[in-house]
Amino acid sequence: MKRVAILISGGGSNMVTLVQSMTGDHPARPVLVLANNPDAGGLQKAADLGVDTAVVDHRPFGKDRAAFEAALMQQLSAANPDIICLAGFMRILTPEFTRAWQGRMLNIHPSLLPKYKGLHTHARAIEAGDAEHGCSVHEVTAELDDGPILGQARVPVLAGDTPDQLAARVLPMEHKLYPAVLRRFAEGDRTPVYLP
Ligand code: GRF
């Protein structure tokens, strides 16, 4: 049984769908939900789902990313995960941390990578006049939003879409894509998942 830790910063809607997917004959189970923000709404949701939670507030560490990540590692070592899922986790990780988890850490990013790495992806897709947009799950490597793609889901961009309307169309697809990719990844299969 693979042990999965999920890192969040906010509401944790992706975390909820991942946790809810890991039942029955699924080869993985959630062992920890870890937030960098003590006010993350996802912490209560995780506790309600019976998953252990922890908080490592990044703010006391200031610019000292290494010290923040050492505290993350302390929490993670206790949970001893086989797989880490970043799910709405809004901190940039150092190459040292990503190297330590290389091949075992996934992230969901709200764009059709390699397009629109970084922030404000929905606004950028609208700005560019793209007909399609979506989300990607990728392995996390040292370069931001850059690792091997493990899945993508596409949605249309409609005339007059605001970034919020487009984000609202993408989010349900994230909730379908990430659990599908995690299951395959936990089975040792890196064949990308494409939706629809
Ligand atoms: C989502 O837009 C997702 O694309 C990005 O973080 C946002 C919030 O995700 N990764 P969640 O609801 O906290 O899972």
Structural features, described:
With 196 residues, this protein is an alpha/beta fold. It has a single domain, classed as Rossmann fold. It is 35% helix and 23% strand. The protein is built from six helices and eight strands. Helix 1 (13-21) runs parallel beside helix 6 (163-186) and helix 5 packs across helix 6. The longest helix is centred in the last third of the chain and has 24 residues, at 163-186. The two termini are 29 Å apart. The mean pLDDT is 97.
Mean pLDDT: 97
The CATH class? Alpha Beta
Euclidean distance between termini CA atoms: 29 Å
CATH homologous superfamily placement = Formyl transferase, N-terminal domain
Ligands and ions found: 5-O-phosphono-beta-D-ribofuranosylamine
Rg from alpha-carbon coordinates: 16 Å
Largest sheet: 8 strands, mixed
Structural class: alpha/beta
By DSSP (H or I, 4+ residues per run), the number of helices equals 6
From the spread of the alpha carbons, the general shape counts as globular
Low-confidence stretches: none
Strand content: 15-25%
Specify the helix fraction band. Answer: 25-40%
The strand count comes to 8
Domain module tally? 1
**Main sheet: strand order:** 3-2-1-4-5-6-7-8
Which sequence of SSEs, written as H and E, runs from N to C? EHEHEHEHEHEEHE
Would you identify the CATH architecture?
3-Layer(aba) Sandwich
